[in-house]
Design brief:
This protein is of the alpha/beta class. The chain has two domains: about 1-120 and about 305-360, Rossmann fold, CATH 3.40.50; about 130-300, Rossmann fold (3-Layer(aba) Sandwich), CATH 3.40.50.720. It has 13 helices and 15 strands. The strands form two sheets. An eight-stranded mixed beta sheet has the order 3-2-1-4-5-6-14-15, with helices on both faces. Helix 6 runs parallel beside helix 7 (about 180-190) and helix 10 (about 305-325) packs across helix 11 (about 330-335). Keywords: NAD, Oxidoreductase.
Length: about 375
């Protein structure tokens, strides 16, 4: 199979779809790999690194799309890429369709095979291709939140860990999934007081078992959320509904109950955000302020640490890329139930029900 690795062109996205080590494995399995010139520069992988493992470096993104049977990316295609995608071409990347009707309609029009990293699901319900980026984003959420709590960044001027004689900052984490657990771990490590909310009691029991005593758990409901936003300094939105739009747990009217300089980091922004006032931002302009509340809503947080993120992503995507390349997408998805759940759009038909529900569309037989 001919596999293309284009350069990501989303704002400040420095990750790349495959490391040289991953390309080496594909070439070893007799596949042809095209890498766009400079695609890996931001992650610390250069053209010569790819050439040394057998990749063919092409000058333009158009060449990569035109010559490839399968495209392996990191982020969803943006408008400039829509016209490059070919009918029947496999595109394997993060899509988050439920948060963008425009993207969904564009991929329907292109009649491609869209396999979404974020909906590949194992038998136990875990999301193996989303997990490493959720781990990165959860940890980064605290780093960024701590920074924007500083007064020069319009935050409350709170040091999360406090100092002797001064109470630590308070962090509220919505969701005890991968993002929430990692955020809580980082915040606790800094010495902050952490409250983590979820509706899944099994997850809350797990948090209680593994976290130190200054991480406390409560059941998530509107009453408890409204109670805690009044005195917490940093709020992390880490709620995930598989392949669907995130629920608005914090509404616009709740902002008035927060103290000026409170910081919200909405990691769920890729799926529409779990805060009503969320809108996607970039690493170039990461924050905005509404009602004196600082919102950090960067849609590709792991892109800020591209070396770590690209390595972590290739670790988990490579086995699936190899299977798709070795067997073709039809046989690969037929024999791998996890990969089959990654199928979102097939030759113009949406087959993932959460996308259909997000836009109130009618289901289509495939």
């Amino acid at each position: 199979m001919r596999i293309g690795i284009p350069k990501e062109i989303k704002n400040n996205e420095s990750r790349v779809g495959m490391t040289p080590a991953g390309v080496f494995e594909l070439v070893k399995n007799n596949h042809t790999v095209y890498v766009q010139s400079g695609a890996g520069d931001g992650s610390g992988f250069f053209n010569t690194d790819y050439q040394q493992v057998g990749a063919i470096v092409l000058d333009t993104i158009g060449q990569v799309y035109a010559m490839s049977d399968m495209i392996v990316k990191v982020k969803e295609p943006i408008k400039e890429e829509y016209g490059l995608i070919q009918k029947g071409q496999v595109v394997f990347t993060y899509f988050h369709f439920a948060s963008s009707e425009t993207l969904t309609e564009a991929m329907i029009d292109r009649k491609a095979i869209c396999i979404a990293y974020e909906t590949v699901e194992d038998e136990d319900g875990t999301l193996p291709l989303l997990t490493p980026m959720s781990e990165v984003a959860g940890r980064m959420a605290i780093q960024q939140g701590a920074k924007y709590l500083e007064k020069p960044e319009k935050g409350r001027g709170v040091l999360l860990g406090g100092v002797p004689g001064v109470a630590p900052g308070k962090v509220l984490v919505l969701g005890a999934g991968i993002v929430g657990i990692q955020a809580a771990k980082m915040a606790a490590g800094l010495g902050a007081h952490v409250t983590i909310l979820d509706v899944n009691m099994k997850r809350l029991r797990y948090v209680n078992d593994v976290m130190p005593s200054h991480v406390v758990t409560e059941f998530s409901n509107e009453f408890n959320i409204r109670k805690h936003i009044k005195d917490h300094d940093l709020i992390i939105g880490g709620v995930l509904l598989r392949g669907a739009k995130a629920p608005n747990l914090i509404t616009r009217d709740m902002l008035k109950d927060m103290r000026p300089g409170t910081v919200i980091v909405d990691v769920a922004v890729d799926q529409g955000g779990c805060v009503e006032t969320t809108r996607p931002t970039t690493h170039e302009n990461p924050v905005f302020i509404i009602d004196d509340v600082v919102h950090y809503c960067v849609a590709n947080m792991p892109g800020a640490v591209p070396y770590t993120s690209t390595m972590a992503l290739t670790n988990v995507t490579l086995p699936y890329v190899l299977k798709l390349a070795n067997l073709g997408w039809v046989e690969a998805c037929r024999t791998d139930a996890s990969l089959q759940k990654g199928l979102n759009i097939v030759e113009g038909k949406v087959i993932y029900k959460e996308i259909i529900e997000a836009f109130n569309w009618q289901a289509v037989e495939v």
